[in-house]
Design goal:
- With 181 residues, this protein is α+β, with helices and mostly antiparallel strands.
- It has one domain.
- The strands form 2 sheets. Strands 1-4-5-2 form a 4-stranded antiparallel β-sheet, covered by helices on one side. Strands 3-6 form a two-stranded antiparallel ribbon.
- α1 packs antiparallel against α2 and α1 runs parallel beside α3.
- The protein starts with a strand and ends in a 7-residue tail after the last helix.
- It comes from Winogradskyella poriferorum.
Length: 181
């Protein structure tokens, strides 16, 4: 019986990603600082800061002949310093907390992704199923990021900002089992 390992890597981030880009993996012990935002500000934007983050997903399948007999996955939340920026004259700790929550939301969807991947059963359509989950998770993440900015008015609405901070904290806690290490 011949066993082969077939590896697929899929990198899908909101901002795109090339292998030479610096990344910071999400961690519950390391919060973003303004020094992490190394990109050039967009002169046409009304924003004070921009957080570029996304999900990096890869998988491998183990085959015997033409049959898939096992699989493994890697899912991470990444922050892209060179694509993230801020206006130093307008930035403050409140805005930094807003930007950190964007990264935390990315981690929340990484945990949801891992949870869904864990439920999969090895079958001949596993690659299609993983890719479908990947697409759906990224769409849900994108939508949540937009709703977060709309409801908080990009951090200006303090009550909404506080709500979202508590909401995301609780959602992350519910999925603690799937936390990035």
């Amino acid at each position: 019986m011949q066993i082969k390992h077939l590896i697929f890597l899929v990198f899908l981030c909101f901002v795109g990603n090339s292998s030479n880009d610096e990344t910071i993996k999400w961690s519950d012990t390391k919060k973003l600082t303004w020094e992490d935002f190394k990109g050039n500000p967009n002169p046409h934007s009304d924003a004070v800061a921009l957080t570029a983050s996304g999900i990096t997903f890869g998988y491998s399948v183990k085959t015997s002949g033409k049959r898939i007999i096992d699989y493994s996955t890697s899912v991470e939340a990444h922050f892209y310093p060179n694509k993230s920026w801020y206006l130093s004259e307008k930035a403050d700790d409140h805005i930094l907390a807003h930007e950190q929550l964007h990264f935390d939301i990315t981690e929340l969807y990484v945990r949801k992704f891992r949870e869904q991947l864990e439920r999969l059963v090895v079958n001949q359509n596993i690659k299609i199923q993983m890719n479908q989950i990947h697409v759906a998770i990224n769409e849900a993440l994108d939508n949540t990021q937009k709703v977060y900015d709309e409801q908080t008015n990009h951090s200006i609405n303090i009550d909404a900002q506080n709500y979202w901070e508590n909401y995301i904290k609780e959602e992350l806690k519910k999925l603690e089992k799937y936390k990035s290490q």
